[in-house]
Here is the input.
Amino acid sequence: MYVDKKHPEISIQRLDGEYNLDKFKVSNNSYLQLIYFENEGQYQQQQITRQVKSGDLLTIPSGKLHKGKLFSQAEGWIVFFSTTAVNPYYWDADSSLNWFKDPLIIPFVKFSETEAHTHYYNIPPSYRPLWCQCLKALHSELNNKQFGYKQVARAYLTEILVNLARIIQEEKEDDLTRERHPILSQVFQYIDSNYKKSISLKDIAQEVNFSPTYLASLLRQLVGNTALELIRERRMLEARRLLLNTENDIGTIGELVGYKSTTYFIRQFRRVHDQTPYVWRNTRRQNT
Here is the structure.
């Protein structure tokens, strides 16, 4: 197993015919997980044996370590990666709100407690050589750690995620969020368009024609967050972008993302990141 311990955004493990996943210990369960099979075989998951074939792909959301124990005769790759490997402005504690427009992340998102943790796809034969090439190269980069390997590793990961997004778009007429949960799509769209304003649960409920009480219950059931938590999450995504890409002072950034009070903005930022905006900005810039 090759893991970048100093900057553990991506790790990769080779499946070589027979492999016990319980031996693969991952210290950070905020990773998204991708399992790609290069040939036919089987694996056990929760005492159920499942057959896999060449090109099969499993995508698993963060916080849900895969329970498959034994991969028999199945060869391929397991990739664990943080959302920051896809977009540096993401935060591992984010919910599906900040990812609902990102076609590279959507295949890994679990939108409700009733939805399966694992999503299944099959990569068409014409694309399989690309997947094998990129995964082998990703493994090599993380193993050899030559100059610039982090950037190259992100590029290989992005290439296969873009390819998956294109395959999904070819097969589906609409985006996955709207198809799987149209109400969530409406809620996310409204927050995304209005988070800089003073909005509340009541405003969102009016937009989707639900009562505030029912919408609050639905959000808890589907994403485990309140409306105010989702609004804050979207504001923090933009705040991180502005902190890294502009020289605006903290008060100005707070106002730009919807907080009239600088003190309150700092308090909310620290609640999410365990750091003040000042410290977060300086730390991130020093590590860039």
In short: Residues 149-171 form the longest helix (23 residues). The chain has a mean pLDDT of 82.
